[in-house]
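Letters spell out the chain; the tokens describe the backbone. To illustrate:

===
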Amino acid sequence: MSIYGISGSKIYIGGAKEPANGADMIATDFTSQTWTEITPVESIGALGDSAEVSSFNAIGIGRTLKRKGVANAGSMQVVMGCDYADAGQLALRAAAIAKGAYAFKIEFADKPATGASPKNSLRYFTALVMSASEQLDDANGTLKLNSTLEINSNVVVVHASAT
């Protein structure tokens, strides 16, 4: 089993895209997107499904009964060095004002060393851009742009490949 570093990974924003209604999205749902890289990025954050707990207090047995509820792909906290000229950050700021979801792509730097046409692994999803706020720290700090992405679809995983 191999593990990979995050260095070299990239995050992109696409156009407005609502999640599939009641069906999981697949990689081909994102092929028509025009992607704009968001730079410079310090941290991309976490993503992936977690199940909600659905509970019922059964008075006859004096116990809470639990079952898995709906899936929630979570919130991502993306941290960037603030760059007022970066096209990706400008698109992210515009998406924060909009009401709808946008397409996102994460590309890892993990392609195989050999193969006919090695490709990095990818993650695709839609998200609501809930914030694009500037972080001002101490005198030695760097002005940062923080953005919260509320993932609003399943996360589509495309594995790295040699072709």
Q: What stands out?
A: The mean pLDDT is 96. DSSP finds one helix and eleven strands in the chain.
